[in-house]
Amino acid sequence: MKAVELKEFYPCFINGEWVGSPGDQSIEVTNPANGESITQVYSCSEDEIASALQTSKEAQLKWQALPAVERAGYLYRITELLHEEREHFARLLVLEQGKPLNDALAEVDDTIRYMTYSAEAARRIEGKHFPSDQPGEQLWIQKVPFGVTVGLMAFNYPLALIGRKVGPALVTGNTMVIKPHELTPITASEFCRLVEKADLPKGVINMVAGSGIASGTQLVSSKITQLVSVTGSIRAGQGIAASAAENITALSLELGGKAPFIVLDDANIDKAVEAAVIARYANCGQVCICNEGVLVHDKVADEFTEKLLAKVREINVGDPMQNIGMGPSTSANGLNRIEDIVRKSVAEGAELALGGQRPEGSQFEQGNWYAPTVLLGCDRNSTAVREEIFGPVLPIVKISDFDEALDIANARDDGLSAYLYTEDYRKFMHAAENLQVGTIFVNRGIVGYIQGYHSGHKRSGLGGEDGIYGIEGFLQKRTIYLDSSL
Q1: How many other C-beta atoms lie within 10 A of the C-beta of residue 445?
Q2: Domain 259-449 architecture
Q3: pLDDT tens digit string along 32-90?
Q4: Measuring CA to CA, which residue among 178, 188, 201 is closest to residue 16?
Q5: Where in the chain is the domain with CATH 3.40.309.10?
Q6: Which residues are catalytic?
Q7: What is the pTM of this model?
Q8: β-strand pairing of 373-378 with 393-399
Q9: Quick one: 133 exposed, middle or buried, by C-beta within 10 A (0-12, 13-18, 19+)?
Q10: pLDDT for the residue 3
């Protein structure tokens, strides 16, 4: 596998043209493994962002007029090009985001699957035909695109989130302005190189980069924007919802959460331990549906904890280009937050069983490194149990029964996902009815199938992504009463 050659500068992509040149108006991108600057990406001006929106608007009606299968053909072409450069894009992800190379390769594959699934849906965009109350009349409900959409990406999956949003947006007849996270904009610029190579009509996909607040607010608050699809934190979602309020812009908000990992006294402990470790430390804990805290029955807590600690000690931390188990956190600010949460939790009485600091060794002195960490003796009021960590720290809370676990989980304002390990079908049926989250993993580790649906309840979001419902999220309904009488 060849080493990736980074450009010194990456432009943005507006109306089929490359925009920007090196200078002060650029975003510096750093390698999270060593903190070194690796390249610059152009930061668009207000006028350039306005141009991206306007050209998306001008392109949209012609794009919508194409048959869906023709729109799908462009998606297939982009995925073919992405497959040809699979290793190149994977190494880009390692350098700017920090995930291990094998995980980065999987992200490229997932991006291809997202876009392929969307393309395959071109002949499955359905409306409804209802009987009328009047003779000689037809009643239809069509599904039509919103128009210009905006995709705001998080830093944890810089490429997959593009495929997850662009695929359904384009196949349904929308155009999209992509805005990557300022920590991880390289992959988005490179993705647009494939867009250009695939001869996608100008303006159908535009890409702008810039600071999260300023550029994001302009995109969201524009009268041109008809739908905003966001992956980010709850706080970011609240700000975006406020910016969208004046124009009543449609929103799809995939926000954060605090997934409880519930282990009851009849659980398969070995299976639960294996899943708990993977679901916490995958992507350095930077997955919105990650295991954010274990709620384990006190009858099996000692056995579970002993086996979990042994498993966590086996995690190999190191150079993400070497296919190791866990790389660095992407964000320096995120690392500071992780350290603060651990410090507060220990001060509140939690026991630091593992980690709690940078890994030992000169290779970890620079960059955003944090050792896999386990906190024991936590309760529901511990900082690590209350706040989303989004990092490699796992608090463990002992519970006395299933009802206590449900109470802790449902008392939260968010509700993205949860894990439940039990052999009692009555309990998991009760959880399916009463656990207030968008996704429940029953005796199952972390996963997200393309044909599933990813959504949050309560403050974890509006709308959702993936599967047929994710594609329908990029369509609005139009009712037609047609007098067909002679």
Answers
A1: 18
A2: 3-Layer(aba) Sandwich (3.40)
A3: 999 999 999 999 999 999 999 999 999 999 999 999 999 999 999 999 999 999 999 99
A4: 201
A5: 259-449
A6: 254, 288
A7: 0.96
A8: parallel
A9: exposed
A10: 73
